Amino acid sequence: MILQQAVLDAVAAGTSAEVSLREIRNAFVEARAHEENFDWRYYLVRYAAMREGPSGIYASVGGAMGYQICMLNKTQMNGRYRDPYLSALVREVGAFGEPVFIGGYPEYSRWMALPKSGTGLCNAPNGFILRPPPKEEFLDAFRRFCMDFGVDERLTLAIPQRLRSGRQVDTEDRVQAGAQLLRDLLAAGL
Length: 190
Fold this sequence. Notes:
The protein contains six helices and ten strands; from the N terminus they run H-H-H-E-E-E-H-E-E-E-E-H-E-E-E-H. By secondary structure, it is α+β, with helices and mostly antiparallel strands. The model has no long low-confidence stretch (mean pLDDT 87).
């Protein structure tokens, strides 16, 4: 309701609806970044890749939006869908096509395989999880990468979080952190 009122006030003052919406969006993103409050709302507003899709329907764990959501291309999970977080970080890097997943449920892990090595990358509630490449020739580079990048023994790159209103919320932008992780994986030859 507050958003609608802000748009209507701006339009009534002579500002176009498009400019008003862009200003409201930018103010929201800046405020959340300043507060280090990167919840799912921030990501959906900040990254266009997380809002694009033919159906506009999201599926989430237990119906609660968060860091494990799927963007459906149709109206059911039995079709093709995307992990919006992985889609956004791939688009930020501009390295290869966006990953599409088939079947499963929102609580299932969605693994994106890097084209060259097959190294897996998965978005998780607490950050990103890596899976070693299936090809032996890339394992040494993968191990070196994990040590150099600070990936823990569970192959997880944790995103710092804090408790807000009873839920863990990122305190840094996971899409930017994931994009940097992906850039570094590709630069390492993986």
